[in-house]
Design goal:
single chain; alpha+beta; two-stranded antiparallel sheet; Membrane-bound Lytic Murein Transglycosylase D, Chain A; ten-stranded antiparallel beta sheet
């Protein structure tokens, strides 16, 4: 047993000796493999293929609904230190519209107390798919007018939520339209036949008969030779503009038919038109009172420009006229007394706000009513 162990040990030693020697030398050590140097770190992220952009929603024009209410023309008083942009935000109107209406630059310098104007019109808020052309068409405004009011140029780009101002068409001049009618107050006083009143336009209360009888006026007092000469040189009454009265106070004394601020005075305007009376602001339905005792010459709506109209004859050939009433409470031939309610104020005829058109005439010649009225009441 011991012999076998000894022989196995010698054999193992010989095998190991043969592997460790090669002619008495040891085998060379293994060569280490050279690795490439590490790359310097960079801040650039790894490239990622970008996702395709989302498809833009399909755009298509949509019909526009004209739902914006009409705003009347108004004035705006500048507060100390306010700029045009601040005023536009305060009033809820586009800056371009406010600047355009007043001929100002967007950054114009303003002073406290300065008065700016904003014309009548509508403010439409843009919705998806609406174009300026479609908006203008819906509100029956010319595209050029809408573009000019908003200072827009082709291609008239609009964003959702933008406010577009649609200017109201100008109101016809009341006096000009009254003269265009073949029948006016002057001819009613002279006895012309009025057109029948529009159906449903007659007043509540006494039914107005639509005929003025000739010859109800007393003859005017004799004129001086100078006045007669001037009258003979004047053009015929049918084509002449009314002649303003002399400045001195007339013989008749009147009471105010209505309390309110003066909207338009008597006489010729800068536009060349002539107002034969005055216009007084009113509250719809406010009582209109006779300015003096007299007899009703006419009550009806035969003069379209003035709507519900009443003419009253007073002593010595004086006549007063009351226009734009919504309700007439007297009829032709009625006797009225100073201060008696004869009508209710309205906005009939060619006006867009409640008011009274009030005239004073000596025969057929218009006279400034302010010369026969006491100082204007307030409130």
């Amino acid at each position: 047993m011991a012999v076998r162990r000894r022989v196995a040990g010698l054999a193992l030693a010989a095998a190991l000796g043969g592997c460790a020697t090669d002619g008495g030398r040891l085998p060379p050590p293994p060569v280490a493999r050279q690795l490439p140097p590490p790359r310097p770190a960079t801040d650039r992220p790894a490239f990622v293929q970008p996702a395709p952009p989302p498809a833009a929603p399909a755009w298509r024009p949509v019909p526009v609904r004209a739902t914006a209410p009409e705003q009347p023309a108004r004035t705006i008083v500048v507060r100390p230190g306010e700029g045009l942009a601040a005023i536009a935000r305060r009033e809820g109107v586009p800056l371009a519209v406010l600047a355009q209406a007043n001929g100002l630059a967007d950054n114009a310098l303003l002073g406290g107390g300065q008065v700016l104007k904003l014309p009548a019109g509508r403010l439409h808020r843009v919705e998806r798919g609406e174009t300026l052309a479609a908006i203008a068409r819906a509100y029956r405004v010319r595209l050029a007018d809408a573009a000019a009011a908003n200072r827009l140029r082709p291609p008239y780009r609009l964003e959702i939520g933008d406010l577009v101002f649609l200017p109201s068409p100008p109101k016809p001049d009341v006096v000009a339209r009254a003269r265009a009618n073949k029948l006016d107050i002057d001819r009613l006083i002279a006895g012309a036949q009025p057109r029948p009143a529009a159906r449903g336009a007659a007043a509540n209360g006494a039914q107005a008969r639509a005929t003025a009888t000739p010859g109800l006026l007393k003859p005017a007092p004799a004129r001086t030779a100078a006045a007669a000469t001037a009258a003979s040189n004047a053009p015929p009454a049918s084509s002449a503009a009314p002649v303003p009265a002399v400045a001195e106070a007339p013989a008749i004394r009147l009471d105010w038919p209505l309390t309110g601020r003066l909207l338009s005075g008597f006489g010729r305007k800068a536009s060349g038109q002539v107002n034969d009376g005055i216009n007084i602001a009113a509250v719809a339905g406010a009582p209109v009172r006779a300015a003096a005792d007299g007899e009703v010459l006419y009550a009806g709506s035969g003069v379209a420009a003035f709507g519900g109209l009443i003419l009253i004859r007073h002593a010595d050939g004086w006549v007063t006229a009351y226009g734009h009433n919504e309700t007439l409470m007297v009829a032709k031939g009625d006797r009225v007394t100073r201060g008696q309610t004869i009508a209710r104020a309205g906005a009939t005829g060619e006006v867009d706000s409640p008011q009274l058109h009030f005239e004073l005439r000596r025969g057929r010649t218009p006279v400034n009513p302010l010369t026969a009225l006491p100082p204007r009441p307030t409130g």
